[in-house]
Amino acid sequence: MLNIGIIGAGRIGKVHGESITRYVKEAKIKSIADSYLNDDTRQWAKDKGILEVYTDYKKILNDPEIDAVLICSSTDTHSPISIEAIRAGKHVFCEKPIDHDLSRIKEVIDELGKSKVKYQVGFNRRFDHNFKSIKSAVASGKIGQPHILKITSRDPEPPSIDYVKVSGGMFLDMTIHDFDMARYLLDSEVVEVYAMGGVLIDSAIGKAGDVDTAIVTLKMQNGTLAVIDNSRKSAYGYDQRAEVFGSLGQVSVANDSGSTAVISNEAGVTGEKPLFFFLERYMQAYAEEITEFVEAIVNDKDTSVNAEDGLQAVLIGEAATKSLHENRPVKLSEIKF
């Protein structure tokens, strides 16, 4: 049985705590740490059978019984805690992004080069049942040579302005998942990015220096053209769709909803809205990614989403930001670090 420590007991830390407790059979949560620990979190941990609760994460890293850590703290702590954990000999699952600073991601990669620990980045959408089906159809050649990829990713409501100010911007916070999906679904690298964005939902987001609506086009190394459309507010719920069109056909997935029931009557034909947000939509995917992380440790296998994948997604995000600001296509080779 693998002993896991969770660093960061906010929303995503609790999501992983729930999924490990419910679904991951080969691991247990031994401890959790959060510098802003409160009574509610202490009670939540107790309810989940987590007996060791700290305000100092170093107690987890210094515990010889801890095999692996999940880094679920604020983004600015991801890379420094990653390096500390690697040096402590702990396997690491790190939520995205590893860092907003490319040079700091490189420091993590360099540290991993001196170690044998496993390192996985939290791009949970790779483990979603819908997107895995697209990946399988493309990889097996069922649609022939991919020509066009379309990804729609729209949140049901925008984040708080306080969050926007520290998020790194829409491309490094939200679209970063879609950049990773493009690489994953097509098994190809991005070579050029062109981004357009606007402030159509909340003027405060624009005042904070960000956009809330965007279209990003990607040119892939294998020749495929990709289009990503993002919105911070979708009135009907969490909109998560994708399509790959190829020389022999196309594969697409629709949104998950509470049921597939469709009512047809004189008023019209109606169905249920998409599941509201990422907790409902991707809960099983969170469990799947941690299960694979644990299996990689137990069976001494490579993780499928590694630090290099984390680096590439941020590189694409930086290129998109540069493209938005300069109103031109930007090649990834232009982004230096």
How would you explain this protein's 3D organization?
The protein has 337 residues and is α/β, with parallel strands linked by helices. It has two domains: 2-117, NAD(P)-binding Rossmann-like Domain (Rossmann fold), CATH 3.40.50; 126-282 and 313-334, Dihydrodipicolinate Reductase, domain 2 (2-Layer Sandwich), CATH 3.30.360. Helices cover 38% and strands 25% of the residues. The protein has helices at residues 11-23, 39-47, 58-61, 75-87, 102-112, 129-139, 161-166, 170-173, 176-186, 203-207, 278-298, 307-326, and strands spanning 2-7, 27-33, 52-54, 68-71, 91-95, 119-122, 146-154, 190-198, 213-220, 225-231, 239-246, 249-253, 262-265, 268-271, 330-331. The strands form three sheets. Strands 12-11-7-10-9-8-15 form a seven-stranded mixed β-sheet. A six-stranded parallel β-sheet has the order 3-2-1-4-5-6, with helices on both faces. It has a two-stranded antiparallel ribbon with strand order 13-14. A hairpin with a 2-residue loop joins strand 13 and strand 14. The radius of gyration is 20 Å and the shape is globular. It starts with a strand and ends in a 6-residue tail after the last strand. The mean pLDDT is 95.
Q: How would you summarize this macromolecular structure in one to three sentences?
A:
Helices cover 38% and strands 25% of the residues. It is of the alpha/beta class and 337 residues long.
